[in-house]
Amino acid sequence: MDFQHRAGGKTGTGGVASASESNRDRRERLRQLALETIDLNKDPYFMKNHLGSYECKLCLTLHNNEGSYLAHTQGKKHQSNLARRAAKEAKDAPQQPAPERAKVDIKRFVKIGRPGYKVTKQRDPDSTQQSLLFQIDYPEIVESIQPRYRFMAAYEQRIEPPDRKWQYLLFAAEPYETIAFKVPSREVDKDPRKLWTHWNKETKQFFLQFAFKVDSRSTRPPSPKPLQPASTFPANAVPPSAGVPPPPP
């Protein structure tokens, strides 16, 4: 008999699997997958009865072995019952009030413009340190606010193309606009005697002074002492005395 051209059949094969065989193969694959991913000790619906068989407390089904139960947990019936149970528990659970967030009063001010300022360049004659003194005037500042400052790297700002040679010094105080100064990107001396601030509440002026650290490569050698003026007399000559008259011409 020729089996070569029969529908669904091919010579040398076992033929087309039946529906029961396909279901059995599917359940076996699901069981193997569940054995690798599910821990039965943590399954609340898994129970072993007094007869030695296994039960699903959610679906009320009996199973001869653990593999059969695991294959059942991957089926449509068990999954739909899980979804139905989760929806029922969410509906019956009392609604907990959301925790109240701490209310923070956001102070909003209308900007009135930029403050006046004065910048003074200085140099310490002993240590040759370069320093800057800033004087910012805030005549209309809010009473409860004190001016603040901070240094900002060139890569933090979005106004100019970043340049590692420069950094920015920012001053802020409400209701004035924040102003920034472009200073060299050098290390600042954090010594309290070199870096200090002062807020004068009476004149409404904020002072900031800081100094750059001295770079050892840029230090200049000390200037030589000035030379003494040379004497007008030869080394072996004796200067004239004050009481002797000059010689005749």
TrEMBL record:
Annotated GO biological process: spliceosomal complex assembly
Example of a GO cellular component annotation carried by this entry: catalytic step 2 spliceosome
A molecular function GO annotation: nucleic acid binding
UniProt-listed SUPFAM superfamilies: beta-beta-alpha zinc fingers (SSF57667)
Localization in the cell: Nucleus
Principal localisation: nucleus
InterPro entries according to UniProt: Matrin/U1-C_Znf_C2H2, Matrin/U1-like-C_Znf_C2H2, SF3A2, SF3A2_dom, Znf_C2H2_sf, Znf_C2H2_type
Family: Belongs to the SF3A2 family.
Function recorded in the entry: Component of the 17S U2 SnRNP complex of the spliceosome, a large ribonucleoprotein complex that removes introns from transcribed pre-mRNAs. The 17S U2 SnRNP complex (1) directly participates in early spliceosome assembly and (2) mediates recognition of the intron branch site during pre-mRNA splicing by promoting the selection of the pre-mRNA branch-site adenosine, the nucleophile for the first step of splicing.
Protein name according to UniProt: Splicing factor 3A subunit 2
Native species: Elysia chlorotica (Eastern emerald elysia)
